[in-house]
Amino acid sequence: MTATGSGHANGRADVAVVGGGPIGMGIAWRCAQRGLRTVLHDPAPGSGASSVAAGMLAPVAESHFGEAELTRLLVDSAARWPAFAAELTAVTGQDIGYRTDGTLVVTLTGDDQREAHRLWAYQQSLDLPITLLRATALREREPALAPRARGGALMPDDHQVDPRRLVAALDTALDRAGVTVVPQPVTDVSTLDAQVVVVAAGCGSATLTGLPIRPVKGQILRLRAPAGAVGFRHVIRGYADGRHVYLVPRGDGEVVVGATVEERGDTTVTAGAVLELLRAAADLLPEIAEYELVEARAAARPGTPDNAPLLGWHRMPGDGRRVLVATGHHRHGIVLTPVTADLIADLAAGADPDPVLAPFQPGRFTAATRENAREKEPWS
Amino acid sequence: MTATGSGHANGRADVAVVGGGPIGMGIAWRCAQRGLRTVLHDPAPGSGASSVAAGMLAPVAESHFGEAELTRLLVDSAARWPAFAAELTAVTGQDIGYRTDGTLVVTLTGDDQREAHRLWAYQQSLDLPITLLRATALREREPALAPRARGGALMPDDHQVDPRRLVAALDTALDRAGVTVVPQPVTDVSTLDAQVVVVAAGCGSATLTGLPIRPVKGQILRLRAPAGAVGFRHVIRGYADGRHVYLVPRGDGEVVVGATVEERGDTTVTAGAVLELLRAAADLLPEIAEYELVEARAAARPGTPDNAPLLGWHRMPGDGRRVLVATGHHRHGIVLTPVTADLIADLAAGADPDPVLAPFQPGRFTAATRENAREKEPWS
Fold first, then answer.
1. How far is residue B111's CA from residue B117's CA, in Å, rounded to a whole number?
2. How far apart are CA A374 and CA B8, in angstroms?
3. Which one, A214, A329, B120, B125, has the greatest CB density within 10 A?
C-alpha cells in the first residue's frame, strides 16, 4: 500500500474509511476506482473477524424466517461474487480460494430432518435454488459422509472464498489503486480530514457512532487433511443431533469447522465449544478425526438488533455531521462484501441511495430504542 | 572408582550426559553433587516429552497386571519425591508445583466400574494405598464431579508435579552445581570425551545405542479455569464410557487433560484425539466446558518391549565401549526421575548396581530379539 502521507499530503482526502476488514477494504477499493482520493485507517488491516471467518457465500443456506429483506441482499451480493472474484484475481494475480462446488446440507436424526425441512420449505417458497436429496443421493455426491446421514439438500449457488486470501488480495488491490493506508487507530471520526467518512469498523463501530452494534462471539477451528487431501468437495452444513455445524474444504487441504454463535464479546476459545464443534463435525464426516487440528480461534461478529447490517448515511449524535456507515454484517460480512463495496462507494461518490439499501438504514432502531427506554421507565 | 583419575589431569569430563529432559538433568545434578565433573549435551533442554507431560506421580494408579517389578520401582521413586522436591526447591528457590492432594479414580458406567474394580483388586493385593469410595463419598470429596459418577477410589499417595517448572528448577540446579551444558546435538556417543557417557535421550536413545526403544505418541491438552479458579483439587483419573482420561489441576488455574497412547511417532495433534479427550473430560467434570483451551500438543514417549525403562550399563554394538543407559521411561519419566537420578549417578561414580535395577538391564531383550530374527528367517 502507499506510504502514509504520500500523494495526498497537500490535499484533503475525498474519502476516509475507518476499518480495514473486507468491508472497509472493498469500499476503499471501489471508491478509488471511482476516482476518489481514498484513505483507509486501520492499525492492522485484516486482523479482525474476517481472519477467523470461514468464508461461506451462502445466500440460500443463510436465509431464515422473517429475514426476507436480508435474503434479497444476500442473493444480490452473491450474484456479484463471480465478477468481484474475477476482477480481484485479475488485478492482483492472487488466488482468493473462490470455489463454486456448492453446499450440501445434511441431517442425522429424525428431529434434525424435521427441523431442516421446515427451513427448506421456506427457502423453496422464496424460489431459492435448492434440491432435496435422499440419503443415497447424498452419499453418491459425498461418499465420505457418515452412514448415519439421513437426508439433505443441495444448494448449488452457495459457494465459498478464503477470507484470509481475500484480505491479502484486497491489500494488493488497494495498493494498485493508490489507496493510502494509515496504520493508526481512530477513536473519534470528527478528527478525520475528509469530505466523506465511512465507518466500517465492525464491532468497533458502536463506540464510533453510537449505533446499537453488539459483539456476537464465534468460535471456529481449522483442520488440515493428511497429505492435504480433503475427502469431500462441497461445503457441508450439518444438523447433527440438534447441533449446527459447517465444514468448508479448501483446495490446500484446510477444512474450516464452525461456528458457535454466543452473546458475549470475549475471544476466549473454550473447551466446550471445541468439543461440540468437533463432535458434530466428526458425526457428519468421520474421517476428520484423523485430520490435524491446526488452529482454534474466536472473534466477535458485529451484530445488530435485527441481525441485518447498517448501510447508509447516519447523523452523528455529537456534532450532527453525516457519516456513511457499513457495519453490523454479523455472520454475512464476506458474502456481503461486493454489494456493500459497490453501493457504499456509490453513496460516497454522491449518488442517491440504491433502493436495495432502504431496509438497512442505520437509523432504523432509533425510535424503537427510545420506545423501549420509555416502556422500561416505570420499572427502573 | 572408574569414573575418576587421569581424566581430571587433562581436563576430560568425568561424566557426559546425553539428553536434557528431567531424567538426564536429574542424573547430571546428582553426578555433580557426587563431585563428578559433569557435562550435559542437549540442543534444547526440557523441550522433549517432558514439556508435554502432565506430571502425575502415580505409583498406585499406574500399577498394572504383570508389571510388579515396575510397580516396585514406581513406589520406590515416588517415596523419594518429597525429599527430591524439597531439596530442589531449597537449592533453587523455585516452585515446582509439587502437590500432594492425592488422586481420585472415577467411573461412569457399569462397564467402567467392572473394569476398574479388577485393577483395584489387583492393586489392593499388592498392599498399595487405595480406598474404594461410593458415589456419595466421591462427590463429597469433589462436588464438581458429574452426577453420573458411579464409584471410585482414592489413592492418597499418588501426587503431582509440574514438569515444565521441574525442568526450569533443574536447569537452575545444574547451574548452581557447576554442570556444563553443551547446546549441541550428539549423533555418536564415541565422539564424547568423558570417562562415563550416560545416554538419557528418550526416543533419540534408539539410534544412539541400538536398543529397542520405540516412540509412543501421546496427545495432551492444557486448559485454564476462568479467573484461575479450578473447581477440583485432586488429580482425577476417569473411566468414562470405556475411555481413559486424566485431569491434573494446578495451583495457577491450569488443568492438564491427557492422554492418548498411540503406536506412532509423529507429533501431529489430531481432531479425533482432542475430541475424545474433551468428551471424556467433560463427561467427568462438566465445568471444564467453560475452561479456556490453551494448548494442544503431542510428544513421543520412549517405549520399550515390556514398557519398563532401560537402566544400567550397556555395551555399544560398534566399539564395545560401555555406556550407561537411562531411558525407555514411557509414561513414567517424571515419577521415575528421583530413583533414576540417584541410582544412575551411583553407577557413574563407580558403585555396584543397586539390586532394584536388576529387572531393568538394558540388554534384557537382546536374546529374545535374536530369537525372533531366527524364527522369521524361513519366511523371509
1. 10
2. 90
3. A329
Structural contact between residues A218 and A301, judged by C-beta atoms closer than 8 angstroms: yes
Q: Is B352 left (phi over 0), alpha (psi -120 to 50) or beta?
A: beta
Q: Which three cell numbers stand for residue A294?
A: 491446526
Tell whether A69 and A173 lie within a shared domain: yes
Count of CB pairs separated by less than 8 Å, A with B: 65
Do B238 and B358 belong together in one domain? Answer: no
Contacts of A291 in chain B (CB under 8 A): 270-271
Same domain, A375 and A357: yes
**How many angstroms separate the CA atoms of A303 and A206, rounded?**
10
Kindly indicate the confidence band of residue B369, based on its pLDDT and cuts at 50, 70 and 90: very low
What is the number of domains present in chain A?
A: 2
Q: Which of A223, A271, A281 sits opposite B293 (nearest CB)?
A: A271
Pair (A254, A139) in one structural domain: yes
- The CATH number for B141's domain is 3.30.9.10
DSSP-derived pairing of the beta strands B38-41 and B180-182: parallel
Exposed/middle/buried for residue A83 (C-beta within 10 Å: 0-12, 13-18, 19+): exposed
Chain B residues with CB-CB distance to A268 below 8 A? 292
Alpha-carbon gap, residue A323 to A189, rounded angstroms: 9
A282/B271 touch (CB, cutoff 8 Å), yes or no? yes
Residue-wise pLDDT tens digits, B292-347: 999 999 999 999 999 999 999 999 988 889 999 999 999 999 999 999 999 999 99
CB A32 within 8 A of CB A55: no
User: Is the same domain home to B264 and B250?
Assistant: yes
Name the grid cell of A348.
Answer: 460516497
Pick from A272, A303, A334: which residue ends a domain?
Answer: A303
d(CA A76, CA A58): 11
3-state secondary structure (DSSP) of residue A133: strand
Q: With an 8 Å Cβ cutoff, are A275 and B279 in contact?
A: yes
Q: Which residues sit opposite A302 in a β-bridge?
A: A215
Query: Can you give the pLDDT at residue B3?
Result: 38
Same domain, B32 and B74: yes
Sort residue B312 into left (φ over 0), alpha (ψ -120 to 50) or beta: left
Q: How many residues does chain B have?
A: 380
CB A165, CB A256: distance < 8 Å: no
Among B268, B269, B285, B294, the residue to mutate for chain A (most A Cβ within 10 A): B268
Q: Which residues pair with B218 in a beta bridge?
A: B299
pLDDT in tens, B222-255: 999 999 999 999 999 999 999 999 999 999 999 9
* ipTM of the complex as predicted: 0.89
Looking at the structure, tell me whether residues B190 and B56 fall in a common domain. Answer: yes
| CB-CB neighbors (< 8 A) of A298 in chain B | none
Locate B104 and state its grid cell: 481420585
Last residue of a domain, one of B259, B277, B303: B303
Q: Are strands A254-258 and B13-18 parallel, antiparallel or unpaired?
A: unpaired
Same domain? B328 vs B371:
yes
Domain CATH number, residue B364: 3.50.50.60
CA distances from B253 to A322, B131, B223, B231 (A): 49, 28, 8, 9
Contacts of A217 in chain B (CB under 8 A): none
Rg, C-alpha atoms of chain B: 21
Partner residue facing B275 (CB), from A270, A282, A296: A282
Which of A272, A274, A292 is facing B270, going by the closest CB pair?
A292
Residue B176 one-letter amino acid? R
